[in-house]
Amino acid sequence: GAVVSQHPSRVICKSGTSVKIECRSLDFQATTMFWYRQFPKQSLMLMATSNEGSKATYEQGVEKDKFLINHASLTLSTLTVTSAHPEDSSFYICSARDAGSTNLNEQFFGPGTRLTVL
Amino acid sequence: GQNIDQPTEMTATEGAIVQINCTYQTSGFNGLFWYQQHAGEAPTFLSYNVLDGLEEKGRFSSFLSRSKGYSYLLLKELQMKDSASYLCAVRAKAAGNKLTFGGGTRVLVKP
Question: Is the pLDDT of residue A106 over 80?
Answer without folding.
Answer: no
